[in-house]
Amino acid sequence: MRILAAIAGLVAYASATALTYRLEAHERACFFTDVKDKGTKVAFYFAVQSGGSFDIDYSVTGPNEKVILDGTKERQGDFVFTANDEGEYRFCFNNEMSTFAEKTVDFEIAVRAPFHPTTIPETSFFEALSPPQLQRWIAGYNSQYDRGLRELESNAVGGPQVENEVRAQLPSKPGAHPEQTSVLEESILKLSAQLSTVSRNQKYFRTRENRNFSTVKSTETRIFNFSMMEVGLMVTMAGLQVFIVRFFFQGARKGYV
Amino acid sequence: MRRPSLFLAAVLAVPSQALHFFIDGAVQKCFFEELPKDTLVVGHYDAKVWDDATKNYISKPDVGVFITVEETFDNNHRVVAQRGAGSGKFTFSAADSGEHRLCVVPQNVQQGGAWFGSGVHASVKFTLDLAIGETSKIESTDKGKIDDLAQKVRDLNSRLQDVRREQIFQREREAEFRDQSEHTNARVVRWTLIQLAVLGITCAWQLSHLRAFFIKQKLT
């Protein structure tokens, strides 16, 4: 089963995990992911949803304590980097700068394994397969590639960018017209990329809306506190003025003011 | 020969490259997710404990995981309370829009200590792969089946449904935000009037008190 063996070597799967974690004051939380192949692209997105001035310290460390990304007091970040070392990568958030504010961070880490064409010998392999076998093989690979590409396009800095890698354009069903189906596949891919942009935008708006809500709430409590302070101050000042004037006109100083 | 897709599905069933983090003993680790109504959430998890003999994280049969999902907006009403084995899958659907708190606690694990050497983080290594939204329906059953144009379009459709649900959720949130703004505005007006009233009363009291005082002192 050469085909199965080749496919086993070609599994280009992607995984993305999106979580929201609440960091207490002075807390440091780390999340890890294992990278098994060299040249894997890792996408890291985070946005502070609530707490304090909506900023946090973060750091991304690779195996052997190699620092890949580092930042202090950032509100949100969207990075894609190529992991050149195999091993465990550490994504840390640090809330040690806050004395009492707890921060909620929404983050997403997506890992996409690279396409290794090393298991395929040269054109002889393709010639050995019959066309329907070849179509199904490439279609199966294509679907996984598309998933990973989608995740990555939505995470890439600067918006969706189509990767410049080998793409097969064979039809997924035998008998279908090759050019028509490939145009269809192209448009589906474009739709998929646009949809990723839309959902990324929605995430952004959700973060902003959280901030606005928190500002308005804080305005409300501030108004109450300041009003109470002012009322207290006014009453105190009035009382003080009255008693000082009384003091001036009392006792032995009567009539001398 | 449909084998390739099945083979791919088998390989992808285990969250091998998902996120993992470390828990020190039977401590609870929580995640907060704002979910629109009717969102399906599927999670694959795997808890491994540190074994001194093999110097690696291994799966022990008596290790369990207790998963709870609470609605923080509804007085922490518990939606899911599931006790499972060290590795497994959990599913739940959000009945109402709002913030849900997802907590995991490993069971039957010992406390970590200061005797952990370098390269070892804590006693329990927890791998979590969370899929949120309608696309999770596909991911939970068969990851390898997206090799058909029709299936791709169906996947696009369910992602659009996710977008639609999020939009409805944002509308509700915006209505709440508007209410809060109006409330704050009304509060400003109210407290300003109260302050003016207090000012007027204080002024009147001052004048009347001083007048009475001066009359008593026979100066007026």
UniProtKB/TrEMBL annotation, chain A:
<dbReference type="InterPro" id="IPR036598">
    <property type="entry name" value="GOLD_dom_sf"/>
</dbReference>
<keyword id="KW-0812">Transmembrane</keyword>
<dbReference type="Pfam" id="PF01105">
    <property type="entry name" value="EMP24_GP25L"/>
</dbReference>
<feature type="domain" description="GOLD">
    <location>
        <begin position="28"/>
        <end position="111"/>
    </location>
</feature>
<dbReference type="InterPro" id="IPR009038">
    <property type="entry name" value="GOLD_dom"/>
</dbReference>
<comment type="similarity">
    <text>Belongs to the EMP24/GP25L family.</text>
</comment>
<keyword id="KW-1133">Transmembrane helix</keyword>
<dbReference type="GO" id="GO:0016020">
    <property type="term" value="C:membrane"/>
</dbReference>
<protein>
    <recommendedName>
        <fullName>GOLD domain-containing protein</fullName>
    </recommendedName>
</protein>
<feature type="transmembrane region" description="Helical">
    <location>
        <begin position="231"/>
        <end position="249"/>
    </location>
</feature>
<dbReference type="InterPro" id="IPR015720">
    <property type="entry name" value="Emp24-like"/>
</dbReference>
<keyword id="KW-0732">Signal</keyword>
<feature type="signal peptide">
    <location>
        <begin position="1"/>
        <end position="16"/>
    </location>
</feature>
<dbReference type="GO" id="GO:0012505">
    <property type="term" value="C:endomembrane system"/>
</dbReference>
<keyword id="KW-0472">Membrane</keyword>
Automatic annotation (TrEMBL), chain B:
<comment type="similarity">
    <text>Belongs to the EMP24/GP25L family.</text>
</comment>
<protein>
    <recommendedName>
        <fullName>GOLD domain-containing protein</fullName>
    </recommendedName>
</protein>
<keyword id="KW-0472">Membrane</keyword>
<dbReference type="GO" id="GO:0016020">
    <property type="term" value="C:membrane"/>
</dbReference>
<keyword id="KW-0732">Signal</keyword>
<feature type="signal peptide">
    <location>
        <begin position="1"/>
        <end position="18"/>
    </location>
</feature>
<dbReference type="InterPro" id="IPR009038">
    <property type="entry name" value="GOLD_dom"/>
</dbReference>
<keyword id="KW-0812">Transmembrane</keyword>
<feature type="domain" description="GOLD">
    <location>
        <begin position="28"/>
        <end position="130"/>
    </location>
</feature>
<keyword id="KW-1133">Transmembrane helix</keyword>
<dbReference type="Pfam" id="PF01105">
    <property type="entry name" value="EMP24_GP25L"/>
</dbReference>
<dbReference type="InterPro" id="IPR015720">
    <property type="entry name" value="Emp24-like"/>
</dbReference>
